[in-house]
Amino acid sequence: MRRLRLALCALVVMSLGIAPACAQSYPMRSIRLVVPFGAGGGTDNLARIIEPLISKALGQPMVIENKPGGGSIIGMDAVAKAAPDGYTLVMTDTSIAVNPSLKALPYDTIKDFEPVSLLATAPVILVAHPKVPAKTLQEFVKLAKEQPGKFNYASGGNGASTHLGGELLKLVAGIDVVHVPYRGTGPAMNDLLGGHVDVMFSGIAPRGRTWIPARCAGSP
Questions:
Q1: Same domain, 11 and 117
Q2: Which residues, other chains included, contact 65 with Cβ-Cβ below 8 Å and sequence gap of 6+?
Q3: What mean pLDDT do residues 46-75 have?
Q4: Is the pLDDT of residue 15 over 50?
Q5: Is the distance from CB of 120 to CB of 9 less than 8 angstroms?
Q6: Residues 71 and 136 in one domain
Q7: pLDDT score, position 160
Q8: What is the pLDDT of residue 24?
Q9: Which pLDDT score, from 0 to 100, does residue 4 have?
Q10: Which residues contact 154 (CB under 8 A, 6 or more apart)?
Q11: 218 part of a folded domain
């Protein structure tokens, strides 16, 4: 099976939020960055890494706020309802593209947000608790086929890349494992370490890309 590579994080801002701010020498105050997942996950970790760099580049502090739940919907909705002034941003993952096909949303993904930058990509990997008698992916697939429905897998939430990775494996390998969504990969990892779930699909430290923050929309 090919290594699964999915976009891990994208930075988005409310529609038309940056342009009005440019006339006022944006930014003139602190910027709120909402992470719609729990602390300790891949998206949160990346936010913590780039925060001091962006704060220094823009000359204003960037304040990170975790608002997990609903597979990123709670945090995304908070940003959609914030003032469209460029001072409230959200860092999310592939759930921004997947959630509209999974459920009714309290916001319009296309109309309420404007993409700013792709920050990183990372593979989705499968990790298991030591109680699972499998050392390789092939061994796990064999176990799951022999005991359909016995094993479960944790993810960072419905619609997240870690959820899609699990569903893709189920489809390709023809296995039946139960999905257990969490409010971020951090809480999911805690339960995996505690043996409360069998395996987990998770991102790994993202391969960074050079990112130069633009002070105004349309800047080169």
A1: yes
A2: 32, 33, 34, 35
A3: 92
A4: no
A5: yes
A6: no
A7: 81
A8: 59
A9: 35
A10: 180, 181, 182, 188, 189, 191, 192, 197, 199, 200, 201
A11: no
Report the distance separating Cα 69 and Cα 73, nearest Å. 7
CATH number at residue 160: 3.40.190.10
Residue 136 CB coordination number (10 Å): 10
Amino acid at 131: K
Nearest to 156 by CA among 10, 8, 4: 8
Angle (CA) 8-145-193 rounded to 5° is 50
Structural domain harbouring 92: 5-121
C-alpha 65/C-alpha 96 separation (Å) is 18
Write down the pLDDT at residue 14: 52
For 139, 159, 165, 219, the CA distances from 1, given in Å and listed in that order, are 14, 21, 12, 41
Instruction: Give the pLDDT of residue 213.
Output: 32
SS3 percent helix, strand, coil of the chain, rounded to 5, is 35, 25, 40
Give the whole-angstrom CA distance, residue 58 versus residue 207: 23
DSSP state of 72: G
Q: How far apart are CA 38 and CA 62, in angstroms?
A: 18
Q: Are residues 185 and 159 in the same domain?
A: yes
What are residue 113's DSSP bridge partners?
Answer: 14
- For residue 107, what are the contacts with CB-CB under 8 A and spacing of at least 6? 76, 77, 80, 81
Question: Are both 110 and 128 inside the same structural domain?
Answer: no
Are 188 and 117 within one domain? no
Helix axes 161-173, 137-146, angle to 10 degrees: 70
pLDDT tens column, 67-109: 998 888 999 999 999 999 989 999 998 888 888 988 899 999 9
